[in-house]
Design goal:
The protein is of the alpha/beta class and about 425 residues long. The chain is about 40% helix and about 15% strand. The protein folds into four domains: about 200 residues, no CATH class; about 55 residues, Nuclear Transport Factor 2, Chain: A, CATH 3.10.450; about 110 residues; about 35 residues, no CATH class. The protein is globular and about 60 Å long.
Amino acid sequence: MSGRMWYGWSANDNIRETAASGGLVTGLLLSLLSSEMVDAVCALKRGDDLYDPRPVLVTSPEEIQECAGSMFCGSILTADWVLGAVEANPGIKIASVVKGCDAKVIYELIKRNKLDRDDLFLIGLNCSGTFSPVQTRTFIREVCGMNPDSVDSFLIRDGRVVVRSGDITKEYPLENIEERGFGRRDSCRRCDTPIPRQCDIVCGTWGLYGENSDRATFVEVCTDKGLDFLSQAEKNGHITLVPADQGGVKARSRVEAAMLTISEKNRKEMFAKTGSGMERLTWIMEETSRCIKCYQCSHACPLCICQYCQTKKPWLVKPGEVPPPLMFHLIRFSHIADSCVNCGQCEDRCAMDIPVSLMMHALQDELEKMFGYHPGRPEGMPILAKVNQHEEWEHHYENSYQKMIRLFSQKVADTEDIKEE
């Protein structure tokens, strides 16, 4: 087997009929588990309804088909589950189905020695973006005139949102929906990774041509490992592959280029709203004045993994103040902004609707222009990784780390004594 671009589908007729795009990904996962190339599979499955995607860790081939199908609502990261599985079972080999933001998080965790790339089999998905479940239900009810609980499918196809309920199908241009405020999550609209080539293979529907347009998956092979397990799945009889139509390859490139053009336009427009210099700082201070210090942004961030959180140290952030002082947010920005992958988890979780993800992404963009580091790609290291934190502190304070901590602790205590007097 040679070549990098393929059309493929499951060799199982039942899977091919029930799974999305011919069931190729389902067939691959079955092959990986059945052949014991991996110990587990991390993917999403449908929860109570199509607005409720749930990450699962599957170890039995019999359970794989429960994860079949595409889900466009929700903003769940599977990268968190991969990390949790590895921490609980060191050395476990996992196949994970990932979007661009998942793949970027995984590479940042690899650079932090939290994951081992050799133990991961990454199956990427072309991604047009995901939708807020709450907004989607409102859109279906108010714009489509349908009962959200009776909808059978909600998806993006050829730049249009397609909603199907029974025999009724309605389509709307994605651009029009976003103008009305019912579109993709803002972080998805800014995304620069519609095709996550950091993975071993990437699958999707862009570029399907002719008789294969409704029954197959377009596969791009990105690594030798990807070629190996794709070939093995075909030999095992789990999938069928044919070379991709060259017209389809070109069409896929055009779709990707269009997605990147739109996302670049969205980034410029959204970043412009944040201002620059003092204007941006003022905007950040005004927006964060609503913060209730619930720590959901930190808990949601897949890269906020410090063992001892700096925002909880009393000599840096005084305990008990709500809203917290600006230092609380500055610490988070300084620790995360260089590696922010624009997954949007922090903003999704914020109870006060603070545009945290936009703030972080805008700062990351500035840092990338200064230092040239683009987070989530295999090459390069985060800016802060180049700094030995203890050496820097000792350099600035002309003291040892432990003495510096005692110094700051004493200053906080002295301040409290003065206030009490």
